[in-house]
Amino acid sequence: MNRINEPFAFDGEIDWEPAGEGIRRKILTYNAEVMMVRVEFQAGAVGTPHSHPHIQCSLVEAGTFDVTIAGRTERLKQGDSFLVPPHAVHGAVAVEAGVLLDVFTPMREDFV
Q: Where are the domains of the chain?
């Protein structure tokens, strides 16, 4: 279901989609300027280092992650957050099972 420009997203109505080994995601609300995505990691799952032209802000909703941005790694837990500038190489390792809430600007066209 295409939810672009929809003002509300209901979690129970959105399907999970695979996003890598031990990782799945839900595309929540979005328009051309911004997108919110919930990403669930099993313990030990690796968000492979990558880059993209989008600005990314992420909140650790649950779990513990080792997050690397441009060569710097920090251990983050529930309530912590991080900011990824455009084109910065970044990735995450789930030290324990957890969930990230990612916000991208502009929206990730490759996700829809």
A: 30-111
Are 91 and 50 within 8 A, CB to CB? yes
- The pLDDT tens digits for 59-112 are 999 999 999 999 999 999 999 999 999 999 999 999 999 999 999 999 999 898
Using a CB cutoff of 8 Å and minimum separation of 24, what contacts does 78-81 make? Answer: 81/57
Residue labelled with tokens 């990403």 = 39
CATH value of 30-111 in 3.40.190.10, 2.60.120.10, 2.60.120.580, 3.40.190.170: 2.60.120.10
